[in-house]
Amino acid sequence: MVKRGDLQEGISSSEDAAKNRRKRRKPIKSCAFCRKRKLRCDQQKPMCLTCKSRGRPDCLYTQEFTHSIEPDELFGSTPNIELLQKVDELEKKLNGKGLERENVAEKRKTARNPYANLYHFQCRGSGRRIAYGPTSLRTYLFNDNVEFVKRYNQLRSRKVKIEINKWKAANTWTRMSEFGVLESTLVENNNSNVLKQICESLPSYEQTLNIITDFFCNERGTNDINQVLDKNKVINDFKSSFLPGNKLQSNGERPIETLLLSINKNYYKIGVILMILCICHFYENTPPEVEKYVVMLTGFTTAKASFIEHAQFILLRYHHRELFLACGDDSHMISLVDLLCSSAVTLGLHLDIREVYKDQENIVGSLKSLENLWIWILLSDFNVSLNVGRCLAISSSYFQADEYENDDDSHTKTVNGLPATLFGESDTCVSKIKRFLRLARPMVDEIYDKSCFPDLEKNCKILIDFVETEFAPISYFISSDLISKVPLGETKVLLQVLNLLLTFYSLRFLVSRERGVVLKNNILQTILVSFSVVINTTRMCFDLDKEHFPELFAPDCPNLSPFMALSLAYTNFLFPRASSVFCSFLYHNLTLFEKGHYLSSDNIDQNLADWDLSTLNIPLDKDINILSAFQTYSEIFDGWLNSNNQELRNIMCRSCTFVAIIAMESICRTVLKKVIECRTRVENSRLQQLHNINTPIDPSLNDLHVTTNNVPMGDAPAVLLPDAQNNNNTVNGGSTQQELTNKDNTDVQNNEAGLAQIISDEFWAAYNTGWEELMNQPDYKCLFDTH
Predict the structure, then answer these.
(1) Residue 774 sits in which domain range?
(2) pTM score > 0.85 for this model?
(3) Listed range (166-170, 423-427, 473-477) with the worst mean pLDDT
(4) What is the domain count for the chain?
(5) Which ranges carry the Zn(2)-C6 fungal-type domain (predicted)?
């Protein structure tokens, strides 16, 4: 029997359960105003009849919001409808941004840097191995066009290298002079040491002092490297370390009898002075005794050798090598620059120099010279990184770009009649080198960063803007008359920018497979501007040598004159890249038949007349013709190497690097001329047959460039064009005009492809035959006679 209390407890339990049971919430369809006042809402949108009749400014429906609305938000004492709408709008934007971030993150995870792992591994038969990275010219050549590389190497190995080896033998020239130190005979005289032997090969005390003084003379501008040294300190080091003898020579001067070391065994003070002599007196003919001392000094690895003169000595050795022993790809500089960068960081040059070396000028020299030393080391690191294709040896963490924002050598005066802001009043233009490094180093870092995708197109635009804002107009550099108004240091930095710009263009063409007209125009324009600047720089330096160093023009003088050596250091890295990329790029376009490329010379003169080399920006609607580009290239070099400049060529032939440059230009021109000759002959033969049978030809055949896809092609038996009789039969057979048009278009496209294949086959047959004849020519001068 259930008691009354128990029954009441059961009833209350069921009531509690009913209260706790979740109620079904119907969607609210009434507007907020009608709901609050419990009015009937007709639910019309955007405004119900009630709100409209009462003149309300708005009519809010809660289902418009993406989040739940609390009653207080709608019916509180101070409701804010606009705020609710704003919150809802922001939430939608955040949701969209979240999806966008997810997509970007996903892309970053899947995207790979396509440049980082690009390389060329050089394997010599002698056992030497060198890995070249993505920015190296060798990597570009050996990953670009296999057929071109094959022809290039054939011509180089079977013709050019033989002639260069003959030149080396005749001039007893080698880049392996360091090995001679190991192979030299030991001196049996126990009373003689390396320092004593060096004295016997040095000029007199007075002459050496004059050489050092001239080295710091900035009027000529041949030794811009002198800014990394303190003149007074170097002269004091000379007087305390190079002691003259008492016996006079026949000319009344005293010989250097003793090299005296300081108490702390700082051999590098002597090394710095010897490198000045190598740069300004011995040139490329360094005496064996001096070479032995330099090699031994370079090899010191103890911390006891951590002097500021150590970094200065290594940098001077690097500079001497780029003046007289340059090789084009900086592979001979790798070890020196590694040692140089390591020494710089060990010495704390990456820190605040004015704080770290405060009150030490009497020992290390002026603080300005140390700051310049650091910038030159950074530039050396950048050059080797770009030309060899490797990461920068000095981390970006050590190069604080913001420290160089306020350069102290900016001026508002004029230099040679031009604003000094273009040049800077300083002959060394260190401030411009700083700004260039601040811009360029992050770009090179990106190439090797596997976590990012470098935007090379954007970088190219930034570099072009840098040229336009930092330098005189390009017209000054491409003019043989105006370039003398520009300080040599400015030309040096411009050549650096052009080298980096051309490197990025090459990577876009090779890796990204960009084939647009804009990139093609930029490549050709940058290369031709580079050629013009290189040629004019060389000519100007030649004229300066004739003015300041006429004694070095004697026929029996074997040395490269100072300004010509400087021009070689400035242009050596750019010329091989521009020449090889130009040849490879034109070879690619000249041997492309799949899309119906045609060559013609009808409008070359007009194209040349319209060509403007005074800018790096090409109008987007302009399409540079490759034959016009080759013609411009030929004219640039014809003016350099013609018979009127025989004296210039004689000076250039004193340098193995210049000989290699002349040979490289000859290789490129020979390869391209043979391609153009064979292709023009084959095309003219085929196109003449089209004229003979009175086949209508698209006017674009007279273009210097690519024809349209509707150009009728061919009269070869295998690809005859459809004649009018066949077309009429098709119409009479019941085909509509549209069907006929479609069929004709298909036939034309098939005939176009067929004729392209025929021209391609005939071209390669003629080209291979002509190439073998070229290779069999015995005379080098005949082979490369381009005049």
Answers:
(1) 681-783
(2) no
(3) 423-427
(4) 2
(5) 30-61
